[in-house]
Specification:
The protein is an alpha/beta fold. Helix content is about 35%, strand content about 25%. Strands 1, 2, 3, 4, 5, 6 and 17 form a seven-stranded mixed sheet that branches.
Length: about 475
Amino acid sequence: MQNFDVVIIGAGPGGYVAAIRCAQLGMNTAIVEKRATLGGTCLNVGCIPSKALLDSSEHYYNASHTFKEHGIKLDKLAVDMPQMIKRKQEVVDVTCSGVEFLMKKNKIEVITGMGAFTDASTLEVTDDKGKKSQVKAKHFIIATGSKPNLPASFGYDQKRVICSTEALEIKKVPKSMVVVGGGVIGLELGSVYARLGTEVTVVEYGDRILPAMDKDCSKELTRSLKKLGVKFHFKHAVVSTKATSRSVTVNVEKRDSDEKFEIKTDYCLIAIGRVPYTEGLGLDKAGVKMDDRGRIDVDDHFRTSAANIYAIGDVVKGMMLAHKAEEEGVFVAEMLAGEKPHIDHNLIPGVVYTWPEVAAVGKTEQELKDAGVAIKVGKFPFKALGRSRASMDTEGMVKVISDATTDEILGVHMVGARTADMIMEAVALMEFRASAEDMARICHPHPTYTEATKEAALAALGRALHI
């Protein structure tokens, strides 16, 4: 029996960062992970590998579509899919080994196996050979993340009907692919294959993509993806699939009507969201309660119904984002050490890594209107930027929303080149409750993409300079 101050269950971004911060604060710390490699879904089969493929596919797309205009000629351009997948895996391996190094550096005990509570102070760990061991701790942090939502009716077989995990391993560019769901994961992976030449069709039950983001962002990205060749069926639902060894037939119904049709395709990618991963944890034995959506119920300090057990990341309420989980992990660690940490969940940015990228922080225009808040809105298109024209990245815009009375920035929404990095200006300013006037008065370097942020703030004040 091993005893620790803190045991973290799950070695994804939330878990391993929580472990590092606990160790930094002097706690005897262990982390339990069922995978042979650390890093969780994000590093192994999520954020990191998908970004590797997104970058590779963007390089190919530019080589085949824009290099000639730049004065660069290529002969016999082709996709080497096995090499693309190999490079992706190399990126994953290096990143995961980096987490292993951090565990050793911070003297964190790594226990490999599936953890399950036997009571609120004891965790039983079963390794891949069935061997069981027990660990005790004063405090536990549950950071087990999430898994793809895969309804039985969709016929998920990991071969032709796939989820994001299998989509990262396809060794030959498909001729066609149906993506079920117009959210972040489906659009990112769908855009990878669309750039490589796959005919991609998105089936979305709602009336637009990215339903949680600002409508202007949805419109801008839809327009860009259509130019890429992506087809959309909005207000449609996939009701079933039928797969063979070489293809899959996807049965689609139009929402609110009797219209039905079939799409025969090489692959059907199910991307309708993720659900908390809590099976086999023995939460009932520990006295940990869940809410009506299958998430672990926590208070404002991430404490569960068991006083010594906390939960963070995808298993609790809020956006399923790696950086959210990290911040929550640090919060719990510092609170256990007697500090008084702070998180403003409204100011956690969200990013979609298509090209153009989508990034946002704060409230959407519709949320503010629904809440009856009087606002000012300023927009500035990327096509009006000299930097965008120079790089041929002219799609997208920046939108700044401020309070009509106080001028405080309430939301910033971006579509365009490098907006994943640009959004941090807005996050930093909003953390200090800056105004649109503050954003507009900051001198932005020329020529840069960030000038669009300054101009959007000026537009919110009614005095844009370049439109």
